Sequence to fold (1432 residues):
Amino acid sequence: MANEECIKYVSIIGSTGYVGAELVRGFAGHPFFRFRHLTSKTFAGQPYSEIYPEFRGIVDTVCEDIAYEDVAKDSDLVITALPHGVSAKIVVDLLKAGTKVIDHSGDFRYKDLATYEKSYKLTHPNPDLLKDAVYGLPEIYRDKLKTANLVANPGCYPTCSLIALAPFLKAHLIEEDSIIIDATSGVSGAGRKADLAYAFCETDEAFKPYGAVGHRHTTEISEQCSFLAGKNSGDIKVTFTPHLAPFKRGMLASIYVKPSKAFTDVSSEKINAIYEEFYKDETFVRVLPGKTLPDVKAVAGSNYIDVNGVYDPDTGIIKLFSAQDNLGKGAALQAIQAANVMFGLPETAGLKNIVRGI
Amino acid sequence: MANEECIKYVSIIGSTGYVGAELVRGFAGHPFFRFRHLTSKTFAGQPYSEIYPEFRGIVDTVCEDIAYEDVAKDSDLVITALPHGVSAKIVVDLLKAGTKVIDHSGDFRYKDLATYEKSYKLTHPNPDLLKDAVYGLPEIYRDKLKTANLVANPGCYPTCSLIALAPFLKAHLIEEDSIIIDATSGVSGAGRKADLAYAFCETDEAFKPYGAVGHRHTTEISEQCSFLAGKNSGDIKVTFTPHLAPFKRGMLASIYVKPSKAFTDVSSEKINAIYEEFYKDETFVRVLPGKTLPDVKAVAGSNYIDVNGVYDPDTGIIKLFSAQDNLGKGAALQAIQAANVMFGLPETAGLKNIVRGI
Amino acid sequence: MANEECIKYVSIIGSTGYVGAELVRGFAGHPFFRFRHLTSKTFAGQPYSEIYPEFRGIVDTVCEDIAYEDVAKDSDLVITALPHGVSAKIVVDLLKAGTKVIDHSGDFRYKDLATYEKSYKLTHPNPDLLKDAVYGLPEIYRDKLKTANLVANPGCYPTCSLIALAPFLKAHLIEEDSIIIDATSGVSGAGRKADLAYAFCETDEAFKPYGAVGHRHTTEISEQCSFLAGKNSGDIKVTFTPHLAPFKRGMLASIYVKPSKAFTDVSSEKINAIYEEFYKDETFVRVLPGKTLPDVKAVAGSNYIDVNGVYDPDTGIIKLFSAQDNLGKGAALQAIQAANVMFGLPETAGLKNIVRGI
Amino acid sequence: MANEECIKYVSIIGSTGYVGAELVRGFAGHPFFRFRHLTSKTFAGQPYSEIYPEFRGIVDTVCEDIAYEDVAKDSDLVITALPHGVSAKIVVDLLKAGTKVIDHSGDFRYKDLATYEKSYKLTHPNPDLLKDAVYGLPEIYRDKLKTANLVANPGCYPTCSLIALAPFLKAHLIEEDSIIIDATSGVSGAGRKADLAYAFCETDEAFKPYGAVGHRHTTEISEQCSFLAGKNSGDIKVTFTPHLAPFKRGMLASIYVKPSKAFTDVSSEKINAIYEEFYKDETFVRVLPGKTLPDVKAVAGSNYIDVNGVYDPDTGIIKLFSAQDNLGKGAALQAIQAANVMFGLPETAGLKNIVRGI
Fold:
């Protein structure tokens, strides 16, 4: 048990969606955080455990619908799980109230305003915040996170893609115009809502691509790929296709790239070794041994992301694979990892042993 | 974190089945237990995380195939997850070596030798142990567990049925010859094995009864129902039908009974109130409010069991419902709950916050 | 191919729900029926294959939103797949227009007006039609169907329950106050709608009872059980509990009854023999051999219903089991079976070889 | 019903696997075929409907274990659903007995012997047959199928890939060294066998790539791509990665290619128009309108394959998508389509209206 003076108070705005519920699950077992406010417009006045009965006896906190400044004033950390466009407006007030903020929308993920506004078809009401916001991928931006007041939690597809690509982009080992990302998400990625498209009878025994041109995460991935390669936003473009598969949680990225000239003697073994070296100090990035390939089953319910890659000598293509839980490392648990960094706590606190099991 | 001198060492014999894996998941996050030996004949020499890749970086313990006495000699607790018939032979040697034992088979669950031998079609090699073994249902046998050296972990269907029936049997509120239990299990109940019957294409989009007459858990439930009612083994007979449903984990019992004459003014409200009173001090038995009915989704991955009941005035039938995770409260996590009691630890240690989430 | 003069024209009102889609699938391969109108308020003007893309190139009929009398006037048969309350109002006009009608709601399933009105909490606008309507269970009411103008297609749970119980009720072999029906449905039973309760993430890996007291199908089953036993509506009461399971299609009933004194020498073999004799001329009721028990997988996508039963000598309880597709024999395909009878066609036309396969 | 003299007799060797079962389902409803022999070593002497209970009352044919020549001598068509290596040995004897043969293994799919032998790590015992065997893709080899005695039924991944690529390869509209195929199969693709890897608890809620380098279908696709482009076997190499997803039936290919210089003014609309033109006379290839993308749900249980493509102007990549049922168009139903062509029957006989429904 943590010493009481180490305890931090966290509030979640928009706590009853699936990302909210995963934040609640993660923080409920965290040794250093306690809940202050769980807000919900729809379920205000109801105990959290009525909305998610698995939390009965664990998180019976009553949902509140209170002013954002009242959420902020007695919280060390506020996490916003709100739609894009909404976050852009309210985060500024939370920060003014003196709290730290982790935002789950796309509103603070971009450095290039025009790219954001084109991708989200919105005018950003607080564009000045973009330069201060830290992109919440601890494996890449750990130092900046330590002092950040505003963290933009990365998108699920971007996290999965960037962790797989980072070692190769940083070392200029791949042709930057060759990146093709074919990714698949579980149904929880669509959020908690009454929508026929995500009804059991419409998604079970189904599998399909969607948003095949222009999915928003494309530009988010592109900008971060550019930064990883030491370039400017937009210099690298990626081909990206998401798919929807009939499981609740999990995400797999299968990435196809060409080795650059700098990548001599490319082989599956070398790809594996590059991953091992790059992520050797990272708890949550697990480089699989040999030619073992990732499976979403092995990461479901956790903050782990499993990666590996192979080389196809017949076509000269490198295949990189990464698997994560779209709600875990792809959203809520990564936010907790970032929160640990932001508050100087052990980065694995509350996260290391969470696995789903069979 | 626990004081190092409080730490107990646990070993699991037959650690690579699904019950074994759930024990590993549970103990991996437990503040007071450390693994000593994880044994496996099939996977000896392999790290546990190669068999279950979700444990990579968490439980990389190498599986051993060593003599039972060597498992016992440096363990405070040995948990056997072995087939019936095998446990009956080896548990005696583990006990002689001075360790405490929790056994997952049916070999020590019965007080009446003849019922065991008829149900399992075996001759028990160590029948003297039956009287010493404690039936590991903490809600009923907590005091005996405190000093037990041998605990027989209850079957999954019996746990689900007995928790639902106990308040009514103890208070003689139901007709004892009227008990009909219709129960459904997830596929993990069949264990981890290459068997066409449990292949994805055979079980997905399928639902069926099995073992409709003579399923072994029938006599286990019957004997414990008899004890709950203050009678002798075999005095109460129950009708029991298990079903197999296409989900991994979870178990639901729908139980039909007639109120006895002692149950005056029977109503749904009264049934709920009886549950509330009987389980008011129990963390892991959650009585659902009003007419809310249990769902296996809400207990998956946890040690909780949710119960409630209603009365049908048109037919005079009481319906009792209970939902648990067949690997959780129905097997491995209940064993950890029992272990906590056996070693004088807080009964909820390592268990309270484990929930599956969405 | 059928002689053109044998061809009948069928229209479906409310054709775009799941029952509608199964009617479309069934009639699309029928040798003697052609579609006249497929109506839909929501999708009027769209080809059916845009709503259900599996029908592209097969049923591209454009959905219409036209007056009911216009639907009726050039149709030999109109099938209404509308909510209860709505059918009660419009069926009378369809009949006046000279067409035959099969209705899928509860509005014409009862002979006892008061039971209907209490069960559905409605006042029936056309109660006179109740006595003319034929309950569309061909195995029981075949003769009446031959001349029926209005057929009330039975509910899914009632079909499953009544086929299992009929041989025993007709021969007075069971105690009539002992009937307990524990039944489970796939998610398609809830219909096609945007409803969070039936979202993939809410129903996958879930299993629960619902409507545990007072589900409408209880009184429908009760009335038909009474008639089967030669009694008046309401004389027999049944205990009924539905459950929701994570598969798309299929329904299983597990039924518990006590043998009456007339049932001498009760045994599993005798139960099987009674089924065999009772259903020996029925194509769509398959009595499983020996102690083989039904599985919803074996009937999915078809008009078959599989039945069998066993006797538990320890408790004196008979267990009867039946499995059907809730959209098949439980709804749309049974309506086609009834339509075949109504129009003097071979009863198996278009239905015999429809099976889902793996 | 077909005139009795048009009837052909078909036998299936290895009839009890999943491909066999789908052949049985397809032929059971076929107007022009009757079963002669269903062979099985494991299940000889058992009615087919005991192995697959959905066929009770439909296909109760008793499985036989008889000499291949006895299968052939009274069959018009023998379909072999045997492992590769086995077919290579026995097909020659079937042909000698005067029957036509459709083989489901890889043994007769290649024109280039060396490629086959390297891919399958086997020495072919009857290499002379390779030149006579017709690759059973009716949309490409229809004319040859009309007179073929030996048809090699294409692999599931090759069918899905080639139908998507054919119009572009034939017209030289894509860069031939740019083809990347990312494909996903349902679990039935692994066949019917007791194998832990395909157990429900191992595959449900799982998703992963497999065989990421050197999957056998890679060379089969490469050879046929070469032929489509008017080149020699092996001239075109493709990058291919299969994935396993938690549904029973269905396959999706997401294909990434670069337009060649010959493809001017490339756009999504043009891609769609090219598909429309190329497949305008094909019943079973459905070109989806606009930017509608394929979903395996829409083709499950059928012989249809749905295709469409889009162009990403930011990266200059064309994305092609195709969805089929891996057991349908990807295996058994395509074999029936080929059989129709081989025997001069209407190509859609028995196939047009088979759809799975919801």
User: Anything to note?
Assistant: The longest strand of chain A covers residues 305-312. Chain A touches chain C at residues 18, 187-188, 192-196, 198-205, 246-248 (CB under 8 Å). The longest helix of chain A spans residues 156-170.
